[in-house]
Amino acid sequence: MHSAKQRIMMTAMRLFAERGYQSTAVADLLRESSVHSGSLYHAFPTKQDVLIAVLEAYRDGIAPMLLEPAWKGVHDPIERIFALLGAYRRLLVETGCTYGCPIGSLALELHEPDPPIRALLAANFDGWIDHVRDCLEQARHRFGEDVDTHRLATFILTVMEGGVMQARTHRRIEPFDDCVEVLRDYVSRLTVKGEGNRR
Amino acid sequence: MHSAKQRIMMTAMRLFAERGYQSTAVADLLRESSVHSGSLYHAFPTKQDVLIAVLEAYRDGIAPMLLEPAWKGVHDPIERIFALLGAYRRLLVETGCTYGCPIGSLALELHEPDPPIRALLAANFDGWIDHVRDCLEQARHRFGEDVDTHRLATFILTVMEGGVMQARTHRRIEPFDDCVEVLRDYVSRLTVKGEGNRR
DNA sequence: TGATGGGTTGATCGATCAATCAAGTCGTGC
DNA sequence: GCACGACTTGATTGATCGATCAACCCATCA
């Protein structure tokens, strides 16, 4: 049996992603994880500390929970990037385009977050970008030498988050697919031999 | 003197952008617009109707309030796109990277919005995309004929929103600049004569 | 047997929320 | 002068919020 703390965290990850942080009442967490308020406040000083624990779990779960399943059977570093985008696509489709990237949602929902919250949001983005940049570095020989892999990885995160935002707003997958298609076109132009660099 | 309804709307546009919808209490709107609760509920049936009015104002203000100032003195259609992105950049810099695109923030903050809200969010995105697509159409002769201008405009909105998200999260403008730089590179590759199309 | 302490129970708290409403003000038409 | 509707005033409501706390349970070990 999971401990009360674990049940709270699992419920919080789901509800914060489904409804957002502010729209999730502590009473919702208690009901859906079958925990009483005293137990929650025994495990976490405040509701915000639940959020901190959730963001730490996402940060520590990028590789084992997100990348490894998405990259199973995919070995080409460029295709791994698109497999990662495909994982977000599957999430969107499975939820009727209501569920996107929980980090992005929280990043825009919390306008003036306390420093530890903002630092954890940034750490999640940084971790994601680092792994994508590693893929790009592994494919470095296919790019021009002056391609800035960190900048390009930042761009890829932007395309994912912006695509998720539009898909969620329209409740249609097409905007996300359009963005990934355009990104594919750009990457293919970057990797065409002999014209790889231009700036 | 502005009417109570106008003052509420001006305050709501500012506070919803600064703090978000849910974090803005009706009492905040009342205090900062010097209006009493009875007057607000005389002008608007509910708080949500204030949001609807705000989203309608943004939708109707895209051309006169956003594009026309950004495009003053800029006539090249491609440069107009980057001038538009420059307007968001200025907003970010002026607010220490705390204020981004209010539509994007609301789109991710409101996870399960009522249909009229979601429709207005989508209408705002659609209006923005339509204007960018018009720019691309005006520059059509510079692209390959098989470039999908609507798809590319969707991509440009994604780059803006994703760039704003990362800049706000890091409280630094660099991620936004990085994304715009990469977009510039892509557009320049699309418009190089004789190799304009590849898919 | 009894003491200790991590963990649980669930009623309860004050604060804050969106929303209400009776009473009042004021300009306009008759 | 008076009736009317549009709008304002501001106290008040019930609901919901995050958080608290005394009492209790029970495994462990002396």
DSSP strand count of chain A: 0
Rg of chain A is: 19 Å
Roughly what is the average pLDDT of chain A, rounded to an integer? Answer: 95
Q: Which range best describes the helical content of chain A: under 10%, 10-25%, 25-40%, 40-55%, 55-70% or over 70%?
A: over 70%
Low-confidence stretches of chain A: 194-199
Subunit organisation of the chains: homodimer
The gross shape of chain A turns out to be elongated
CATH-derived architecture of the largest domain in chain A = Orthogonal Bundle
Q: Main β-sheet of chain A, in a few words?
A: none
Count of distinct structural domains of chain A: 2
Secondary-structure-based class of chain A equals: mainly alpha
Chain pair forming the biggest interface = A-B, 49 and 49 residues
Give a topology summary.
The structure is a homodimer of 199-residue chains.
Chain A (H helix, E strand, L loop, with lengths): L3 H16 L6 H8 L3 H7 L3 H24 L6 H18 L7 H8 L5 H24 L10 H22 L3 H18 L8
Helix pairs in contact in A: 1-2, 1-4, 4-7, 5-7, 5-8, 6-7, 7-8, 8-9
Chain A binds a DNA duplex (30 and 30 nucleotides) through helix 3.
